[in-house]
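2 proteins. here.
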Amino acid sequence: MSVCIEEAARVIQEEATALDFLSYNIPPDFERAVDVIYETSGRVVISGIGKSGLIGRKIASTLSSTGQLSFFMHPSEAHHGDLGMLSNDDILLLISNSGESSELFPVIDFAKRRRNKIISISQNPESTLATKSDIALCLPNFKEACPIGVAPTVSSTMILALGDALAIVLLKKRGFTMEQFKSLHPGGAIGKKLLVIRDIMRAEMPLLGIEDGMQKAIIVISEFGGGCAGIIGKDDELIGIITDGDLRRHMSLDLLTKSVEEIMTRNPITITDDVLCSEALRIMEDKKINNLFVVKHNAKIPVGVVYIHDLISRKVI
């Protein structure tokens, strides 16, 4: 192993060790912080300077994307007018590893006058920030991973992890759903990953009655161009499917004289419209099929159809 790789491994291992220790030593007031944020009608306003500020921006983004109104306020801009963005119901989450970042002091004083609650994250329970906070989340004191022991590495990683923990615990506490998450992430890779079948299924379906003949079946399959037709029985339930593969397997001179019931595959695989598109694609690949009918919950009544090329074109993988 090269010196470069050894040093990289050391840094990661030291950060992992700190995170492991933190997982067994969550700050005692963590649950209280969760409850205070959960019960507020205001926003979580996060502030910090330097690396703490960068981590704070990420925590604010994660909170916002998981259902908690939150934004980052730069401490230097705060005491040049941005404190006006604070409302009476807002909660401040202030971050400073040392707890002595002077840029935060005017923010603390303003919050105290306004009686905004302050939650802090730092390593020093005796610091100015911790002692002036309503809730102080104090992290274990691990040395930084850099050789001279000053560049924020281990400390910033622990702050980030604690912020993620705060966001996810709040997400679970308020029962934040996949649909809510999706509504906040309509674009990008996450948006594609969260697409459900109802978003892309085709409402116009190639359907046949059980009494129909194969001549009509071939016409319907060709017209829709998806390589299949669903067979409807009594009560409008889907009882079978005919695919291009079924046609090849039953190809004969008398094929057009047969009924769809003789050719169809019974009890086809179906899905409901709330299934993730990525899961539908997995089913198609596992079962080696190119289409799926979408049916109502607790019934086999078809409401749509989805083809494998629809899923691939949306890049839902």
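next one coming up
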Amino acid sequence: MEKIISQEERIRRAEEIYYRRRLNNNNVRMPSSQVKQGRENRQFSLYKKMILQILICIFIYLIFSLIKETNYIFSENVLNKTKEFLSVDLNFTQISAQIGDFFQNNKDKFSFLTKWSGGEDSENKEENTKNIENDENKNEQIENKNEENNQQNNDANNEENKQEGDNAKEQTNSNQQENNLENANIEGEQASITQEATGIGGSKENTQTVQVAAKTTIEKTQMEIDAEYIKKNFSLTLPAKAKITSPYGKREPTEIISENHQGIDIGVVVGTPVVAAMEGTVSVVSNIGDYGTHVKIVNKDVTTIYAHCSKILVKEGDKVKKGQKIALSGNTGNTTGPHLHFEIRRDERTVDPELILSWT
């Protein structure tokens, strides 16, 4: 009669086979007591896991009960504050403008950024400094020449007075007249020296040479000639109808404001439409440099520039018509406040826009 093996006995035998294979020794037989002990250990570990899971569930239940009873996190006050915060309408354009003003007002603190990204500006600044120094040296040479001529004439007059007596008076008068004419010519030469002018708002992007006519001449200046040429050959309109806040020419310099203003500043708020003053081709659309976001339009040898914009509505290569909307005014680049900088050039010589257009 075949012996019936219980389920536990089968499990025990299977475990013995498993352990023999694991020990890689077929001659060793695992004691049944040891097999039974291992089974009891596994059952005990299962009990431990079950108890741990029950404790975790109890802990989570206590946390949810505590939150529900205290009613703090989802209290009415907290919900009202959250709704109030979400209802605030944030004006990101105004915030970005304020951040830009902050960086401009603290430009010295962030000078390392401008040095890293503005290598061209520093080179232009060095060139401007050298040109100004050269002009100063020319002025000093002319003044020295003037003084030497005066001294030589005075010495000659004194010697002639000693030798000729009364006749020397007439010679002295004639020498003084010649000296005055020579000094007048030297002053005219000095007044016509070219001066390097930096751009609007302290811009170093495009420096221009401005001819200063001598006060004694009645001939037209180069700027007046250029203005008449532009009015005769081109048709221009106002880029924006508003008051001029800073005219063309000399002004009181600061860390931001340049001494020589290459164009005019038109006082408009951020977002005011800007139209093309004349027809032409868009040659430059950029946001690099002290001009900020700007656009240049070229028509033959005349260029118009629109600087410190918040957005440009055309792209390089576009053909634009006079009066076409090309940009929105802004407060970008090196500025003291929102405005539109408008500039007119002929062959890279700047021209006062008020000599061509009327803002009255």
